[in-house]
Design goal:
The complex is a heterodimer of chains A (about 70) and B (about 190).
Chain A (H helix, E strand, L loop, with lengths): L1 E6 L1 E7 L4 E6 L5 E5 L5 H14 L3 E5 L5 E4 L1
Antiparallel strand pairs in A: 1-5, 2-3, 3-4, 5-6
Chain B lengths: L5 E12 L12 E5 L5 E4 L6 H13 L3 E7 L2 E4 L7 H18 L16 H21 L10 H10 L3 H12 L3 H8 L5
Antiparallel strand pairs in B: 1-2, 1-4, 2-3, 4-5
């Protein structure tokens, strides 16, 4: 489990084939993922888009495969 | 001049947040792709119903439902069936206008950092340009342009320009704006 504090979202998109929402944080090449069937997917996606638009600081918790476990 | 809008009913095939650095405000826009259509449609960040549109299209994408969206050329203008009260529209206009004045203003020929060093003549041009631009924008999105004048944004402007009322009064004269509507929206007199 990895935690990244105070990050900004730089880009995002959906991968229909993989059933994933994919995003990158500013200054990082790593892609991060949200499974679209996750019950929290929509709430997290809207938070991420808010972060993209407004530069709101977010903290992310990921698993070893860079899938989101939580967003604050 | 009447603008020509189109209404599309389609499945959403992709939603992309274009890559942009922290300082490249104008590089940031959201592209939406619709089924059976090669074009990409842009959702601009300053759209007053931005979050309503995002919630709607993300929800439709996740549930594989069709969306009905109103377009102006390649821009997503609004969602026709979403209706708002005037109080809600006033709050949306405030949020979007505050966003523009806080972010976009700094990205063009003028900037808040440089503003204190402007001559009065340049300050007048600044207010004339930005107030007119944002009023036109609100009008385009179907909002009362006088909703621009609200306490939160007034306080933000006043923070940067202590002599704000003097400039507002000049712009009222130059642009022949309705002073009573500005004062009604603000809740106080500016003269």
């Amino acid at each position: 489990m990895e935690k990244i504090k105070f990050a900004y979202v730089n880009t995002f998109g959906f991968q229909r084939n993989e059933n994933l929402f994919v995003f990158k944080l500013l200054g990082r090449d790593q892609e991060f993922y949200i499974a679209l069937d996750n019950l929290a997917a929509k709430a997290w996606i809207v938070k991420i888009i808010q972060c993209y638009r407004e530069h709101v600081n977010l903290s992310f918790v990921f698993d070893s495969q860079f899938h989101v476990l939580n967003i604050d | 001049m009447d603008l020509e809008f189109e209404v599309y009913e389609r499945y959403v095939t992709a939603i992309l947040g274009m890559e942009a650095s922290l300082t490249n405000y104008f590089g940031k826009e959201i592209h939406v792709y619709l089924f059976d259509n090669p074009s990409r449609f842009v959702l601009f960040l300053e759209n007053p119903t931005f979050y309503n549109i995002i919630n709607y299209i993300v929800d439709a994408y996740l549930k594989s439902k069709k969306v009905t969206i109103k377009l102006f050329v390649d821009e997503i203008h609004s969602i026709p069936h979403l209706k708002f009260t005037e109080e809600e529209k006033k709050a949306q206009a405030m949020e979007a206008s505050y966003y523009v004045f806080k972010n976009e203003t700094d990205m063009v020929t003028h900037s808040w950092q440089a503003y204190p060093g402007y001559t009065d003549e340049k300050k007048t041009k600044f207010w004339k340009r930005w107030l007119s631009k944002q009023m036109r924008r609100l009008d385009f999105y179907g909002f009362d342009p006088y909703y621009l004048y609200q306490q939160k944004l007034y306080d933000f402007w006043k923070h940067h320009e202590p002599n704000l009322n003097s400039f507002l009064n000049q712009i009222v004269e130059i642009r022949e704006l309705d002073r009573s509507k500005i004062e009604e929206s603000l809740g106080f007199k500016i003269k």
